[in-house]
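Recall the central idea of this unit: under ordinary conditions, the amino acid sequence of a chain determines the structure it adopts. In this exercise we apply that idea directly, starting from the sequence alone.
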Amino acid sequence: PGKTVQVFVDEANATLGEKIVLDRFAQFADGYVAAYLHKTSPDLPPQVGVLVELSAENAEVAKDVAQHIAAFAPTYLSREDVPAETVENERKVAEATAREEGKPEAALARIVEGRVTGFYKENVVLEQAFAKDNKKSVQKVLDEAGVSLKRFARFRVGV
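Accordingly, the structure predicted from this sequence is:
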């Protein structure tokens, strides 16, 4: 309380004798916030950290979703968060690939939509298959728990 982030960084530098650089940070305050730290090796400090903000308290779902985000590294929360130019680029790449593969002209629109949907399923957390039960999407798990994922932040050391 009362200290800036820079003061905390400076204190850590002095205490540890190491140069600490803070490239990114996230501040969540509105909903139920939970954190998860993932170690890539038992003898190393955590390499991945995740913050999730849910609409209501549910520690178990928050932990499960944070672990999912640590493992699957989604870029976006929802389809609406994906920039239009990114979607358009995916469409162009999908169409060019389908043409190169010699797909029939009549099927191109369906193929492109299928590949764009695949892009969403890989990059949008709410559409990803849930890590603990791949028969459900993350959205379905949240719906069943009666909460929504308001936002998330995923950090990886060195990135």
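The chain has one domain: 31-156.
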